[in-house]
Amino acid sequence: MIANARMYSVSTQAGALWDRLLRAVIEKSGTLVEVIEHPYPKPMEALWGRTDKGAVFMCGLPFSRAEPQPVLVAAPVPSPPEFEGQARYWSDFVVRVDSAFRTVEDTFGARIALTAPESQSGCVAALTYFMPNERGASTDAATPPYREIVGPTITPLGALTAVAQDAADVAPIDSYALKLMEKFRPELTAEVRIVGRTPPTPIPPLVASNTAIEPLRAALLEAHTHAASKSLMDELLLERFSLPDPASYAALRHSFDAAARYWSTHRFARVLPASFVTNRP
Questions:
Q1: DSSP secondary structure code for residue 106 in this structure
Q2: How far apart are CA 106 and CA 124, in angstroms?
């Protein structure tokens, strides 16, 4: 089996810490799991589609729509106080620090950077947020919220960089990834600021291809109690790992279906990525 934390390896240093943490947990579990590299620009779908996953970070939306569905192993609980000790996250809308934008609504009509159509935090959370009758902002059905989509930028780092370098005006960024980038990429995050956020949803979990992962799951759930792994978790802004509720991820699939139906008939579909408009259930 394999393990990989590319989703939250926001820098070389962060990636090395993730590798060390996964190796420490695997050693504690006594399981035969290999920590592998799967660097950008290799597609995440190729990693998620492997049949030998043991502990691989996977975006919650593709997890919820996968057939067959992988097995939930554990979910990270970020340590910054705004996460309130829960395995959840949201999308932070970032703009350049010197821009005139003060709210998400201010950015309407500008350029938005999106990571990929199948990304919860980098695409679908934002599109859901813009829908009428949802929490947060709404947009007139006759008016596309943005004149241009920059992307797919693939990663949160790519989307953040697009804003920082003035290739885009706003981007929704995975809130845990943003915290990690504030620590490991401070020169980049200093160029942006947050103007809004989406409602929280379940955070991307570690998944496996089969159910023979109990020792590894147990080691992850206990990792914060062992000095060696706890110190690595502190560096990665992790409080602990928790046991995810499979039902909580099903809501992501329903949100995607609703957003796909709404936006595929909207004028915004003219600039939405074709793969989002056509990626219908």
A1: G
A2: 20
Domains and CATH numbers, the chain: 2-80+202-248 (3.40.190.10), 91-199 (3.40.190.10)
Distances (CA, A) of 90 to 40, 171, 231: 23, 13, 25
How far apart, in Å, are the Cα atoms of 41 and each of 45, 60, 115, 142, 155?
11, 20, 13, 36, 10
Q: Which residues of 17-31 are buried (b: 16+ CB within 10 A; e: fewer)?
A: bbbbbbbbbbebbeb
Question: Per residue, what are the HEC states of 152-182?
Answer: CCCCHHHHHHHHHCCCCCEEEEEHHHHHHHH
2-47 pLDDT per residue, tens: 999 999 999 999 999 999 999 999 999 999 999 999 998 999 999 9
What residues does 72 pair with on adjacent strands?
207
Phi, psi at residue 176, to the nearest 5°? -70, -40
Q: Is pTM, for the whole model, over 0.85? A: yes
**Where do the DSSP E strands lie in 182-235?**
192-197, 201-202, 206-208
Identity of the residue numbered 157: L
In this structure, the strands spanning 2-4 and 34-35 are: parallel
Q: Taking Cα atoms as reference points, which of 149, 111, 127 lies closest to residue 258?
A: 127
